[in-house]
């Protein structure tokens, strides 16, 4: 490292301040280490090191880049720090550039930074306009932007008359609520290019729509892909259409497959002229994205990539809000050019834990439409639906391929109203919804301490059911009936499925990991309470009835981060325990002692609950407000509830603060897609 002597004092002061903030828990250790590493690579000014610390810190919070405009105008807000914390760090770095262009000029001349228009020497930092990146994220954003632009922008030929014919069969009724049929529009739009994005809240019919889209593709593709030119189209002839279903987690994948099978089954009765049961049978199981791409242990590389693309014509990805930037880049890389990608997800949900908020970025125009006149004309011809005036405004190629579904079919009641209020940032309406539900679907409790809420964990809430007692009693009953040895009527597997279903109907979600209202504190308290009630007996780490969540992919045992299983006796080996995972209609199990990276899952984070729904969902907020406690988190927690939702707030005002707080992730994806 070469440092000008005049800067040495500032460096020392800055490093000391970074260390102090690290000790105080304001910075992660990696951020300081990264800045030091950058300093070893060339001449480094204190402002450059400061920018590196912040870039690394923001990466840890899910941002893919550092926006120089924010760095110049509101660094404190960007970090969620107090004025004193920021002032101390700033003072230790000496004079800082005054505005974004001064920052840009400073970074432009730094040896460790590659300004994208210049010669590339493989520097670790990338400067693209007013955004500073770690190289990996710039590469991933560029990959996603290029692929999205190409896929959305290149129109596929569509036989409009035939599409209209089939869409009228697949969607025979006008929407009850009036207005255009956005589901029908979504199908028409998705046919037109190799990218279709369908977003909407829970129960708005994303899966219902995509099942019809598959039927439409099936009905219209046969003539094009497989038959000789000029040959007559024959329903069912598109047997070779290779369709893959995927989702970020095993649970979400299993749910997708189940819902699509169910929707196709229903549809088959209405459209007997299409061999939809055959289509469903050929589709195969839905897979996790990791498994689809061929994850390999100890590497970030996948078996499938640009050089070895996936063998698919249509790829449907559900719960796309959970797909992080790096995964989306890998997925788009591995997708052959001719294949169609359909992304389904709720744009308002929490983004992935890892960096990026890809679906949210892609859906920025979804609410307002942004359709061009030619898209509107195509939609009218292909689906008979007129786009209302307010949605007309050409917002670019991506907007033409994005459709938001707006009418929830199973979420219109109090839970839906609450979710809407939270999403709109309306705390007063959220409070009114929570307090005004006389039917008992919603409850709002403010327990002083966790012990006041533990009865809920045991027996649920009156009228709402739930609680962990039920599945634990089923385990006991299985013991009494000798089911563990497979001797019970219906067999061991049926019993396991019943126990798993009972467990899956109820869950306690936490906004945070630490503290008495966090995952760790509540899990311990619940375990103790259940043990005191005689419902479980803890003997060491593993015990019968212990629910666990896998915290790391393990290729040896085939379990993945986020998978949830229940510990039950092994029928083949008396005295030993296995962990059973539900996979839709089937069950998979692993010897408990083979699972190394797991944690108890009576309580789990809202983040990890994405892709799952529970009949009765309880969400506990902590006592203190914070930046992580944001609207998206509260919305995601509420929308995990199918029939009943209970909110626990030891301090009621925390709810208002959380609803007011928004998670904004810095990203350059939109700019890169626009090609600016
Ligand atoms: N146009 C429609 N007509 C009749 N029923 C519908 C329609 N659209 C959706 N439904 C029904 O509404 C329910 C919810 O639909 P679906 O599961 O497709 O929603 P989703 O958006 O995929 O939900 P989630 O976000 O929970 O996955 C289903 O029972 C579905 O059959």
UniProtKB/TrEMBL annotation:
Entry EC no(s): 5.6.2.3
Species annotation: Pseudoduganella namucuonensis
Extra remark: In the RecBCD complex, RecB has a slow 3'-5' helicase, an exonuclease activity and loads RecA onto ssDNA, RecD has a fast 5'-3' helicase activity, while RecC stimulates the ATPase and processivity of the RecB helicase and contributes to recognition of the Chi site.
Family, similarity comment: Belongs to the RecD family.
GO cellular component: exodeoxyribonuclease V complex
InterPro entries referenced in this protein's UniProt entry, alphabetically: AAA+_ATPase, Coronavir_polyprotein_1ab, P-loop_NTPase, RecD, RecD_N, RecD_N_sf, UvrD-like_helicase_C
Residues involved in ATP binding: 200-207
Keyword Transport listed: no
The protein's name in its UniProt record: RecBCD enzyme subunit RecD
Domain annotation AAA+ ATPase: ranges: 192-408
Purpose: A helicase/nuclease that prepares dsDNA breaks (DSB) for recombinational DNA repair. Binds to DSBs and unwinds DNA via a highly rapid and processive ATP-dependent bidirectional helicase activity. Unwinds dsDNA until it encounters a Chi (crossover hotspot instigator) sequence from the 3' direction. Cuts ssDNA a few nucleotides 3' to the Chi site. The properties and activities of the enzyme are changed at Chi. The Chi-altered holoenzyme produces a long 3'-ssDNA overhang and facilitates RecA-binding to the ssDNA for homologous DNA recombination and repair.
Domain of life, per lineage: Bacteria
Catalytic activity: ATP + H2O = ADP + phosphate + H(+)
Any single biological process term in GO: double-strand break repair via homologous recombination
Keyword vocabulary terms for this entry: ATP-binding, DNA damage, DNA repair, DNA-binding, Exonuclease, Helicase, Hydrolase, Isomerase, Nuclease, Nucleotide-binding
Assembly information from the UniProt record: Heterotrimer of RecB, RecC and RecD. All subunits contribute to DNA-binding.
Gene3D superfamilies xref list: P-loop containing nucleotide triphosphate hydrolases, RecBCD complex, subunit RecD, N-terminal domain
Principal EC category: isomerase
Pfam family, one: UvrD_C_2
GO molecular function terms attached to this record: 5'-3' DNA helicase activity; ATP binding; ATP hydrolysis activity; DNA binding; exodeoxyribonuclease V activity; single-stranded DNA helicase activity
């Amino acid at each position: 490292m070469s440092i000008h002597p005049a800067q040495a004092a500032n460096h020392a002061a800055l490093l000391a301040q970074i260390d102090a903030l690290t000790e105080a828990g304001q910075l992660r250790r990696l951020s300081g280490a990264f800045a030091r590493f950058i300093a070893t690579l060339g001449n480094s000014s204190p402002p450059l090191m400061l920018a590196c610390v912040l870039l690394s810190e923001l990466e840890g919070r899910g941002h893919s880049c550092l926006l120089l405009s924010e760095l110049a105008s509101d660094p404190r807000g960007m970090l969620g720090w107090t004025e004193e914390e920021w002032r101390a760090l700033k003072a230790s770095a000496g004079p800082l550039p005054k505005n974004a262009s001064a920052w840009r000029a400073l970074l432009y001349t730094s040896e460790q930074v590659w300004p994208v228009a210049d010669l590339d020497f493989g520097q670790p930092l990338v400067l693209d306009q007013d955004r500073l990146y770690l190289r990996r994220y710039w590469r991933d954003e560029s990959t996603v932007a290029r692929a999205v632009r190409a896929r959305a922008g290149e129109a596929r030929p569509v036989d409009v008359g035939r599409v209209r014919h089939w869409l009228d069969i697949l969607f025979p009724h006008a929407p009850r609520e009036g207005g255009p049929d956005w589901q029908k529009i979504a199908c028409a739009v998705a046919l037109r290019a190799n990218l279709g994005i369908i977003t909407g809240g829970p129960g708005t019919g994303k899966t219902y729509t995509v099942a019809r889209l598959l039927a439409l593709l099936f009905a219209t593709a046969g003539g094009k892909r497989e038959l000789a030119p000029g040959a007559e189209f024959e329903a069912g002839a598109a047997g070779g259409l290779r369709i893959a279903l995927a989702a970020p987690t095993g649970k979400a994948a299993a749910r997708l497959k189940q819902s699509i099978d169910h929707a196709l089954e229903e549809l088959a009765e209405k459209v007997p002229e299409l061999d939809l049961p055959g289509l469903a049978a050929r589709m195969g199981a839905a897979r996790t994205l990791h498994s689809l791409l061929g994850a390999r242990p100890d590497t970030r590389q996948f078996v499938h990539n640009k050089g070895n693309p996936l063998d698919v014509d249509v790829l449907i990805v559900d719960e796309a809000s959970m797909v992080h930037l790096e995964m989306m880049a890998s997925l788009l890389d591995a997708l052959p050019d001719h294949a169609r990608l359909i992304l389904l997800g709720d744009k308002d949900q929490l983004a992935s834990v890892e960096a990026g908020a890809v679906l949210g970025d892609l859906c920025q125009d979804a609410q307002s439409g942004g359709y061009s006149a030619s898209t509107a004309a195509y939609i009218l011809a292909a689906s008979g639906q007129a786009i209302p005036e307010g949605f007309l405004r050409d917002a670019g190629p991506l907007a033409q391929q994005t459709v938001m579904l707006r009418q929830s079919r199973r979420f219109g009641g109090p839970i839906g109203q609450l979710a809407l209020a939270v999403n709109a940032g309306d705390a007063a309406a959220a409070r009114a919804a929570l307090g005004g539900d006389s039917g008992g679907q919603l409850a709002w409790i403010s327990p002083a301490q966790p012990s006041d809420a533990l009865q809920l964990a045991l027996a649920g809430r009156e009228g709402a059911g739930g609680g962990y007692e039920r599945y634990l009693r089923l385990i006991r009953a299985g013991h009494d009936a000798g089911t563990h040895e497979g001797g019970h009527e219906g067999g061991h597997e049926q019993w396991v499925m019943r126990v798993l279903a009972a467990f899956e109907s109820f869950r306690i979600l936490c906004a945070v990991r630490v503290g008495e209202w966090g995952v760790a504190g509540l899990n311990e308290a619940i375990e103790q309470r259940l043990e005191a009630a005689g419902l479980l007996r803890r003997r060491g780490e593993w015990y019968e009835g212990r629910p666990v969540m896998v915290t790391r992919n393990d290729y040896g045992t085939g379990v993945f981060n986020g998978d949830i299983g229940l510990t039950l006796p092994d029928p083949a080996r008396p005295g030993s325990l296995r962990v059973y995972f539900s996979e839709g209609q089937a069950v998979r199990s692993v010897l408990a002692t083979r699972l190394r990276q797991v944690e108890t899952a009576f309580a789990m984070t809202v983040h990890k609950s994405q892709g799952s729904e529970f009949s009765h969902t309880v969400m506990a907020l902590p006592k203190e407000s914070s930046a992580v406690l944001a609207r998206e988190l509260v919305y995601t927690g509420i929308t995990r509830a199918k029939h009943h939702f209970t909110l626990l707030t030891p301090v009621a005002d925390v709810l208002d603060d959380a609803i007011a707080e928004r998670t904004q992730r810095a990203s350059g994806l939109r700019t890169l897609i626009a090609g600016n």
